[in-house]
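Input (structure):
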């Protein structure tokens, strides 16, 4: 009976050791999976910011082009009106010149495009601020998780480190830009 009892005791101890090892492995893997999920949230938040910043750059160039085109159209229209007045003092010719200019550009609504681009630029700026706030929240959650005990011990061994917040640095010139719409 003694050998049978020893054999059962060894089997129970062996099963207990294997269970503890498996529990540790699954616990560590669970911590790593959660850290990976937090890292992905941080990366997604960072990518969202970059997408909106790219959109901002595109909108600024489109806005500048729209303003240039609208200024050119306005100058051409005024020149046509002045030329119409200068050729003869007759008010009927001036009215004809104005009608001709408006007929030449029936669907040109650059001022509406300008307004729409300004609205989109404003919305983009608001989205960038919102995405930056979300990014900081994601960094905070990730760092909080990585610093918690006992996950900190396991994640340190696996190479997970705290992430730094990204601060704004536009490398913008000190002087205001000049001649934005010059050719």
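Output (sequence):
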């Amino acid at each position: 009976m003694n050998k049978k009892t020893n054999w059962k005791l060894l089997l129970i101890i062996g099963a207990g050791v294997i269970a503890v090892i498996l529990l540790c492995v699954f616990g560590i893997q669970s911590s790593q999976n959660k850290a990976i999920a937090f890292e992905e949230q941080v990366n997604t938040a960072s990518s969202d910011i970059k997408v909106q910043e790219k959109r901002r750059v595109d909108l600024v160039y489109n806005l500048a082009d729209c303003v240039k085109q609208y200024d050119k159209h306005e100058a051409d229209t005024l020149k046509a009106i002045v030329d119409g007045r200068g050729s003869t003092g007759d008010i009927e010719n001036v009215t004809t010149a104005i009608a001709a200019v408006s007929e030449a550009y029936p669907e040109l609504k650059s001022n509406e495009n300008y307004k729409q681009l300004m609205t989109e630029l404003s919305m983009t700026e608001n989205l960038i601020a919102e995405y930056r706030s979300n990014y900081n929240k994601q960094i905070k959650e990730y760092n909080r998780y990585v610093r918690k005990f006992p996950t900190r011990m396991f994640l340190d061994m696996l190479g997970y480190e705290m992430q730094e917040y990204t601060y704004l640095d536009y490398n913008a010139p000190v002087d205001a830009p000049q001649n934005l719409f010059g050719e």
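Notes: The longest helix spans residues 2-87. The chain is about 80% helix and 0% strand.
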